[in-house]
Write a structure and sequence with these properties.
- This protein is mainly α.
- Helices cover 75% and strands 6% of the residues.
- It has 13 helices and 4 strands.
- A hairpin with a 4-residue loop joins strand 2 and strand 3.
- Helix 8 runs antiparallel to helix 9.
Length: 506
């Protein structure tokens, strides 16, 4: 069973009274310790200046500088690095008169480390406001360091910007020269390829296809003409053969008719002199019969024997013979034309294969040339922009950096001051013994009130015997309380004396 809050409070007051000397001594020691610590802690003064970092100036839109916040954002990122660099701190030490030329001794290194540790950079206003702050025990030194750091930063910023623009211009200029050479080489390769293409007779795929189509038409027409010529030649040959047979047949019949007439004349002469049975008459009759049979046989036969027949004198035969010769010549010409056309078509097809290969090579060369040309033209624009940017940065017109608030002379110390240590000692000295006594009350298991007996043992208390204090005890208690109060006042006086010494020391 837990006792009541009222009982807990009464018990705490009883313990506080019982251990009042412990609380008094701990309060005095704590207050004096804080006061002494505050006496030896030096006051520090902070001075700062603010700089506006704005990369967008009135000239930026005229040259197309791009994103107006890009430059300010970039400078904000490197502001702390510039201010904390060894080069900047060396310039600061030279400006303050700490060193003549460069850092050489260990004391100089310690001073540099202290300056860097006491210098702080803060970015405010979305990275557009830079605050340069320096803390020092001397307010004049704090102001001077903050002011000189501001000047050094502005000069370094412009110098850094100019150097960056110079490097960018030189780099882009070197890239322009390199890509100009690549562009010339690509153009030269393209020219050589086109020259070789003209020398080899390679044309476009469309032209080759057109020529092949035209040659195919010629070939088809020639084959048709050849077939017609062959048909005509065969017809003329048949007509010629028929004319020859007719001419030979008529020629032989004419010869037989003439012989028959001669035999009849001779027979008539012999009949005037001799009888029918005369041997010569009988022989002539037999000859006449033979000639008549030959005439009949000639009419039915197809003999091509030209003996004794002058066929060349036949005009029809000569005309047919001439036409046949012309057709033979035409057939030979058409056959030659067809063979040559087929050979040319085959050559054009091979050219078509070369055209596909050359087109692929030309496309590759043209693509390479166009890529180099595009990059070269883009680099030319960038080089011109870099040149303008370089000129602007050389004249300190490219970046709008200005001091918004100059460094000031601080009048009030920054951080914890002596009064803070004194107040902290009094407050902590009061709370520390109270907390320790209450903690002791929680962990203490001894019985110090009737309520504890009821709460812990569950027994009823019939009564209590109070403390009996006589006059001598009261006097002793009074003397101890007076001594305790004196101790407290002595502590307060000591704190006041230390405070006075601190003020006199400053």
């Amino acid at each position: 069973m837990r006792y009541s809050v009222e009982t807990d409070y009464k018990l705490f007051l009883r313990n506080l009274v019982q251990y009042r000397w412990f609380a008094t001594i701990l309060f005095c020691l704590t207050a004096l310790a804080f006061t002494v610590a505050g006496f030896f802690v030096k006051n520090t003064y902070s001075s700062y200046s603010t700089i506006l970092l704005d990369g967008q100036t009135t000239i930026a839109p005229l040259i197309g500088s791009g994103d107006p916040n890009a430059q300010a954002s970039d400078w904000s990122k490197v502001a702390e690095e510039i201010l904390q660099s060894r080069k900047t701190m060396t310039k600061l030490m030279q400006a303050m008169g700490y060193i003549d030329d460069k850092i050489e001794t260990q004391e100089d290194e310690i001073l540099l480390s202290r300056l860097k540790a006491n210098t702080h950079v803060y970015l405010e206003g979305n990275g557009k406001i830079l605050r340069i702050e320096h803390t020092d025990a001397d307010p004049f030194v704090a102001k001077e360091v903050a002011s000189k750091l501001t000047d050094i930063f502005i000069d370094a910023t412009h110098g850094y910007r100019a150097a960056e623009s110079e490097e960018a211009f030189e780099f882009i200029d070197s890239q322009v020269d390199a890509y100009h050479k690549k562009l010339l080489e690509a153009e030269d390769r393209l020219k050589k390829f086109k020259t070789q293409k003209l020398e080899t007779g390679a044309s476009t795929e469309t032209a080759v296809a057109t020529r092949i189509a035209r040659l195919q038409e010629i070939l088809d027409q020639s084959e048709l003409d050849l077939k017609e010529a062959i048909i005509k030649r065969n017809s003329l040959d048949r007509q010629l053969q028929t004319e020859v047979r007719t001419t030979v047949s008529l020629g032989r019949q004419s010869q037989y008719v003439k012989r028959l007439e001669a035999l009849n004349d001779e027979l008539a002469k012999l009949r005037l002199t001799y009888h029918e049975n005369y041997p010569d008459i009988v022989n002539i009759k037999h000859q006449i019969e033979d000639v008549r049979r030959q005439i009949e046989a000639e009419k039915k036969g197809n003999s091509m024997d030209l003996a004794g027949i002058d066929i060349k004198s036949n005009e029809v035969y000569q005309d047919l013979r001439l036409q046949l010769g012309q057709e033979e010549t035409r057939i030979a010409t058409l056959q030659t034309r067809i063979a040559e056309t087929r050979a040319i078509i085959e050559q054009e097809r091979k050219k078509g294969e070369l055209v596909n290969e050359s087109d692929a090579q030309e496309a590759e060369l043209v693509r390479d040339y166009n890529v180099n040309k595009k990059l070269y033209e883009d680099l030319l624009k960038r080089r011109e922009a870099a040149r303008v940017s370089k000129e602007i940065d050389d004249q300190h017109k490219g970046l709008n950096i200005k001091v918004d608030a100059a460094a000031f002379l601080p009048r009030t110390p920054s951080g914890f001051r002596f009064i803070h240590f004194v107040a902290g000692g009094l407050i902590f000295g009061t709370l520390l013994p109270i907390g320790l006594i209450y903690l002791y009350q929680i962990v203490d298991t001894s019985v110090k009130s009737p309520e504890l007996i009821q709460a812990r043992l569950g027994l009823n208390v019939l009564g209590t015997v109070p403390d009996i204090v006589n006059d001598s005890d009261l006097k002793a208690i009074g003397r101890r309380d007076a001594l305790r109060n004196s101790l407290i006042w002595l502590t307060m006086i000591t704190i006041g004396v230390i405070g006075a010494l601190r003020v006199m020391g400053n």
